[in-house]
Design brief:
Length: 872
């Protein structure tokens, strides 16, 4: 220790402190460490797609390969001769390669990528190289070798992989200062893309995950940094109270997925009864729902609040020339394919050289034996004399050879056994030479047409190894799930109107509605102030609150009707407006902004309703008319900041509601977007129709199930849906189906009597099948008869289904179509028919307004606040 005031210069020599500067040490050592992690551990090489540990495992497996399985522990031990790390890291890397089911033929428990279960210990599981690996990964003659870490052995610098292996398997790693995340792609699609590249055509690559699922690759960005892939579990409705998850997103397991669902349930984001995990070879997770809960809404909630939807950010980083390189997957494939061309070319060149050597020696051997040159060495006493004699004897016969004769060639001739010379057959020797010449010509042809040769090579790989490797991940475009629309509202919202507080902790005050902790709340006060704020335990808005509700962004169907007094003694104005977007926690004025302004009448109308009110004036002076009615339907819907129309310049005593209104908005147009299998009001896809509040959708699927539902943009649709249209209750449904028990086709026509109920209209017996269904007024069908043995084929028959059978109940069996054998039934164009016009009770003259909406007109009816307040 150095005492305060002590002179350092007078301290003894041995007690003086020494300072060691470590700047240079940190700089050099850390850079060396970072370089080592990047190059030797975390990032794969672009040449073969392997990280060093993977490359050493594959090299060791080739060392040990004898066609039989080896214990993984044995392979790991052998790999430690090349890899300067522990056995655990090698075993983990080997299990990851084995789970990708491409390079290693596995035996035993290698874990499960679906459930996340780990592999058995390496002493219990076995492995050998797959046929595909032996075909595309190894070629010792063109491999560049280097000394292993201890200098005792040779290992490959890169393996000569003749396939875009990195893109097929994917790769992920975190180094120092950078990381890589290359997503796996489909085996067959990679081969097709390589062929297209060689043919000079354009190609597109999209990932394909081993866990299947559904993915949106709209922002994939070719696998470069900045891209994003959205992946979803495949969720379908098993019955009205059960959902089944059959495929999971890449990067998750059934265990982690179930945990995320349970956490979301605990937090109140979703509501479930129980979960069953029946996953074995395939995923099957059953999610049981409480009765009365919408399965469609729950599916969206699972995507919004659990790991059923996740986002993956790809990052294409590889090692090239001992440096990290950031490139997209298309460029990776081009480089891999070009590298494959060069590797195949090298193999052909080596093979050509070997064949030419064989041809050269076969020709020399024939000359040597056919011309009895071996006799010229009988009297030679020295080795040099022997060599010289053979060389002299060969010279007259070697003009056709392609290279000069070397001493090594002559030495090889002297090693030919007497037995071979005695049994030499000139014809067979010539046949061998001719066969070699054919092979040489073939190899030269391949070299001259190396691109065609490579295309043929890729086609062979696809034919031999492509079976069962079809795309697993379904490509779709997702709609964003609005979390506020699907979250379970399990928090109660209260208001203290007089004091001006709202919140979830005000249990002694007035209950407003159920909400969630992610909702926004819109509030209006008597003074004409409006605010949108986040749900909280207690928030001060302003005294005399007159309206509180959950706020929906971009909602153009909720219309606010109000009459306000401008200033303390000013005139009164009437206005109608929608609130589509606001800045949270900012106060807005819905009056003209003058001090003392006050709202006299207010109503919030979820479907644009326009009521009739009675205005009462105070008796003052010579006012003759003290009472009259105002219909809000006569007032145009304008912006929130508009001043409004003048009601009166006199003092208003009170305003009373005289008559509840009907919607003044246009019917809502609804489209079906087949790409995402969702309804929308934004004009995407096919227009289904214009819907009012009471209108329903008609849905029929291939299983013979029909239902009518109120259209909502959150709805999901099965893949086997055959009819989706606006339901007309008076329009019959015509059906031809095959009765599985009676083995006969039946025709029936029926009307739907039970709204909002799912019903089956074909018998529930095995092998029954829906053939055709029509919602036309006068449908026509064509019967194509099958040819029976010994009889002429009957002519096709056209049937008017309206005349064939009368309308019956949905449970009726129907009339038998024909007793003859039927080959096919086709639905034809219907007969012309003028349908009756639909009549609606709320058909009114439409007020001029933009016709865009994303909300159901029947939403937002919870709570006790009916949205109508008379203040006088």
């Amino acid at each position: 220790m150095i005492e305060e005031g002590e002179d350092l210069n007078n301290k003894p020599e041995e007690s003086k402190e020494t300072i060691t500067r470590v700047t240079g040490m940190y700089k050099d050592w850390f850079l060396d460490y970072a370089s080592y992690v990047i190059l030797e551990r975390a990032v794969p090489a672009i040449e073969d797609g392997f990280k060093p540990v993977q490359r050493r495992i594959m090299h060791s497996m080739k060392d040990l390969d004898d066609g039989r399985y080896n214990k993984v522990a044995n392979i790991v031990g052998h790999t430690m001769q090349y890899h300067p790390h522990g056995d655990a890291s090698i075993a983990d890397a080997m299990v990851q390669i084995g789970q990708k089911d491409l390079l290693i033929d596995t035996q035993g428990n290698w874990g499960n990528i679906l459930t996340g279960d780990s592999a058995a210990a390496s002493r219990y599981i076995e492995a050998r190289l797959s046929k595909f690996a032996l075909d595309v990964v190894y070629s010792p003659k063109i491999t560049e070798w280097q000394a292993s870490y201890d200098g005792r052995r040779k290992e490959p610098v890169n393996l000569p992989v003749k396939f875009p292996l990195l893109l097929a398997q994917g790769g992920e790693g975190i180094a120092v200062g950078l990381s890589t995340k290359i997503l796996p792609h489909n085996f067959i699609e990679l081969i097709d893309a390589s062929i297209k590249h060689l043919q000079g055509k354009r190609f597109t690559l999209l990932p394909d995950f081993p866990t299947a699922g559904i993915a949106d690759f709209s922002n994939y960005n070719d696998g470069n940094r900045g891209g994003k892939v959205r992946v979803r579990a495949k969720i379908s409705q098993l019955d009205k109270n059960t959902l089944v998850i059959t495929e999971i997103p890449y990067g998750t397991t059934t265990s982690s997925l179930i945990d995320s669902i349970l956490k979301a349930n605990d937090k109140g984001k979703i509501k479930i009864k129980k979960i069953e995990d029946n996953t074995a070879a395939e995923v099957e997770i059953l999610v049981h729902l409480p009765s009365g809960l919408s399965p469609d809404k729950t599916i969206d909630a699972l995507y919004a609040f659990t790991s059923c939807e996740s986002s993956i950010s790809p990052l294409g980083c590889v090692i090239e020339d001992n440096k990290p390189l950031f490139i997209g997957v298309s460029e990776m494939l081009r480089r891999s394919t070009d590298n494959t061309v060069q590797l195949l070319k090298q193999e052909l060149e080596i093979k050509l050289g070997e064949l030419e050597e064989q041809w050269h020696f076969a020709s020399l051997e024939r000359i040597f034996i056919e011309n009895r040159i071996y006799r010229d060495i009988e009297e030679e006493e020295t080795w040099d004399g022997v060599i010289t004699a053979i060389d002299k004897g060969l010279k007259p016969h070697i003009k056709h050879l392609k290279r000069a004769i070397t001493e090594d060639d002559i030495v090889r001739l002297t090693e030919i056994r007497i037995k071979r010379i005695s049994k030499f057959d000139i014809d067979k020797a010539q046949q061998k030479i001719d066969a070699l010449e054919e092979q040489i010509a073939e190899v030269k042809h391949h070299l001259a047409n190396i691109i065609d040769y490579t295309i043929t090579y890729f086609k062979r790989l696809k034919k031999e190894y492509g079976e069962g490797r079809e795309r697993k991940t379904e490509i779709r475009t997702f709609d964003d799930v609005d979390a506020t629309r699907v979250v379970i509202r399990n928090i109660k919202l209260y208001v203290n109107r007089a004091e001006g507080f709202i919140g979830t902790s005000l249990r002694r005050d007035e209950y407003v509605c159920d909400c969630s902790d992610i909702d926004d709340i819109i509030v209006f006060t008597k003074a004409g102030k409006m605010m949108v704020t986040k749900v909280d335990a207690k928030t001060f808005i302003g005294k005399d609150i007159i309206h509180v509700a959950v706020f929906k962004k971009k909602d153009k169907r909720t219309i606010y009707n109000l009459i306000y007094r401008d200033g303390k003694k000013g005139p009164s104005y009437i206005k109608r407006f929608a609130v589509t977007a606001m800045t949270r926690d900012r106060e807005y004025d819905v009056t003209n902004g003058n001090k003392g302004s006050q709202i006299l009448y207010f109503s919030a109308n979820p479907n644009g309703e326009a009521e009739v009110v009675t205005v009462h004036l105070r008796q003052a002076g010579s006012i003759k008319k003290l009472k009259w009615d105002i219909d809000f339907a006569d007032i145009l819907i304008k912006g929130r900041a508009s001043k409004g129309n003048l009601v009166t310049k006199y003092t208003v005593k009170r305003i009373e509601l005289k008559e509840k209104g009907v919607s003044t908005l246009k019917p809502r147009k609804i489209w079906f977007d087949e790409t995402v299998q969702r309804l929308n009001v934004d004009g995407r896809g096919e227009l289904i129709g214009e819907f009012r509040g009471e209108d329903k959708l008609l849905i029929i699927n291939q299983k013979g199930i029909v239902k009518t539902v109120t259209p909502e943009v959150t709805m999901h649709f099965d893949d086997d849906m055959v009819v989706l249209e606006k339901w007309n209750p008076k329009k019959p449904i015509s059906v031809i189906y095959f009765h599985g028990e009676k083995q006969i086709y039946y025709v029936k026509r029926f009307l739907i009597e039970n709204e909002n109920k799912e019903e089956s209209f074909i018998p529930d017996v095995p092998n029954s099948q829906l053939e055709i269904v029509s919602t036309d007024w006068k449908p026509m069908a064509e019967i194509v008869f099958a040819k029976e043995r010994g009889k002429d084929r009957k002519d096709n028959l056209e049937i008017n289904l309206e005349e064939f059978i009368a309308i019956k109940g949905i449970n009726a069996i129907g009339n038998q179509l024909t007793k003859d054998k039927v080959n096919q039934i086709n639905l034809l164009d219907p007969l012309p028919y003028e349908a009756p016009d639909e009549v609606h009770a709320d058909d009114l003259e439409v007020v001029d307004e933009k016709e865009v909406s994303s909300e159901d007109p029947n939403d937002d009816k919870e709570g006790t606040d009916d949205g109508q307040t008379a203040l006088f």
